[in-house]
Write a structure and sequence with these properties.
By secondary structure, the chain is α/β, with parallel strands linked by helices. The chain contains 12 helices and 12 strands. The mean pLDDT is 95. The chain folds into 2 domains: 205 residues, Isopropylmalate Dehydrogenase; 127 residues, Isopropylmalate Dehydrogenase. β1, α1 and β2 form a beta-alpha-beta unit. The strands form 2 sheets. A 10-stranded mixed β-sheet has the order 2-1-3-12-11-4-5-10-8-9, with helices on both faces. The protein has a two-stranded antiparallel ribbon with strand order 6-7. The longest helix has 19 residues. The structure holds 1,4-dihydronicotinamide adenine dinucleotide and magnesium ion. Magnesium ion binds next to α9. Keywords: Amino-acid biosynthesis, Branched-chain amino acid biosynthesis, Cytoplasm, Leucine biosynthesis, Magnesium, Manganese, Metal-binding, NAD, Oxidoreductase. Its main location: cytoplasm. Its cofactor is Mg(2+); Mn(2+). One of its GO terms (cellular component) is cytosol.
Length: 365
């Protein structure tokens, strides 16, 4: 049977960028014989409008069954006054939680044509291609005790950094598997010098590494890692780190390469019966209400998220390369959506024009 894909375009520019991905999916079916069973559903504000909840139970059930979920973006000012539990973001959080997506993959990749767009020197970022694996379901954002408590005559705010061996083990395995598919180089970041959870993290990652002798494993303190990421990011290939450090380091690494409109992500969970990991792919950006409905959105982040799905859920690494090359070609030809333009007098292309150009480049590949 065909691989299955659940598409959740969501709100704002989500449906606009997803429309371009749909054309690419159709292209793969027609031209490469790679046919997907695609179903589409609601998430976020539009799901609230239709069902009174940001994620219907039926949609949740569907997400658990398919080989991969591809999501656009959720949210918008229209929903800002909703109750916390009804907010569009809760739909996304429910997906991540119930699918138990513990490994968040955030690539930082620099297309040569955009190297001068970075705030860093061109030679520091040109050709950059690294991947940060952030643990997503545990750590200080979830650990107990947490809260604001009375202590003596003042209050104290408490969060707890907490990792079990199995939580570290499973995200480390995801990172080693990824390193095996890439350049067999993994750097683990924590602060074992001052944190107990860091000591355990380093111990468990080292232990898991014995199952992956081909991978060159190194360890770095996360603060030093932040410095090295801005000094010479090309020294890294795959980085694995916890939820808090990963939050900071992945945002930092992302901005090495430029626009939010370029950044894909994947969130992976445990292997399913077919051996593929549970998976949700989505652009890093949000619903961009300031440009929604104007044909200005850059579809590349969402298109590259689909490329990640081809690679990590569908074993189509060569086709993922083909799609990324098509994006690279179009950028090299000088096409730019508005977010990729500085002050120079180049006219921006629309969302659909960018999608069409990428399709044409695919056709020529
Ligand atoms: P945002 O990512 O939507 O927008 C930030 C800025 O980047 C805006 O100026 C926007 O126009 C621009 N931008 C974002 N994506 C772009 C693209 N593909 N092409 C061109 N320009 C792009 O973040 P913001 O403004 O903080 O949040 C807006 C809404 O999105 C809020 O409701 C927020 O809660 C939601 N959001 C949803 C996320 C998700 O669905 N995963 C993630 C982040 C925010
Ligand atoms: Mg963040």
């Amino acid at each position: 049977s065909n691989p299955s894909l659940l598409i959740l375009p969501g709100d704002g520019i989500g449906p606009e960028v997803m429309a371009e991905v749909r054309r690419i999916i159709d292209w793969y079916g027609a031209k490469r014989g790679l046919v997907f069973d695609v179903s589409e559903d609601l998430v976020g504000g539009c799901a609230y409008d239709a069902h009174g909840t940001p994620l219907h139970d039926d949609t949740m059930a569907k997400a658990q069954e398919v080989d991969a979920v591809l999501l656009g973006a959720v949210g918008g000012p229209k929903y800002d006054s909703l109750d916390f539990s009804l907010k569009p973001e809760r739909g996304l959080l429910r997906l991540r939680k119930e699918m138990d997506l513990y490994a968040n993959l955030r690539p930082a990749q620099c297309f040569d044509a955009l190297a001068d767009f970075s705030s860093l020197k061109t030679d520091v970022v040109a050709g950059l291609d690294i991947m940060i694996v952030r643990e997503l379901t545990s750590g200080v954002y979830f650990g107990e005790p947490r809260g604001i408590f009375e202590e003596g005559n003042e209050r104290v705010g408490i969060n707890t950094q907490r990792y079990t061996e199995s939580e570290i083990d499973r995200v480390a395995r995801s990172a080693f598997e990824l390193a095996m598919r890439r350049n067999r180089k993994l750097c683990s970041m924590e602060k074992a010098n001052v944190m107990e959870s860091g000591v355990l993290w380093r111990e468990v990652v080292t232990e898991v590494g014995k199952d992956y002798p081909e991978v060159a494993l190194t360890h770095m303190y996360a603060d030093a890692g932040a410095m090295q990421l801005t000094r010479w990011p090309k020294q890294f290939d795959v980085i694995v780190t916890d939820n808090l450090f990963g939050d900071l380091l992945s945002d930092l690494a992302a901005m090495l390469t430029g626009s939010l409109g370029m950044l894909p992500s994947a969130s992976l969970g445990a292997p399913m019966a077919n051996g593929r990991p549970k998976a949700l792919y989505e652009p890093v950006h949000g619903s961009a209400p300031d440009i929604a409905g104007q044909g200005k959105a850059n579809p590349i982040a969402c298109i590259l998220s689909f490329a990640m799905a081809l690679r990590y859920s569908f074993d189509q690494g060569a086709e993922a390369d083909r799609l990324e090359k098509a994006v690279e070609r179009v950028l090299a030809d000088g096409l730019r959506t508005a977010d990729l333009l500085g002050q120079e007098g180049v006219a921006p292309v629309t969302t659909a024009e960018m999608g069409s150009a990428i399709l044409a480049a695919l056709d020529a590949s």
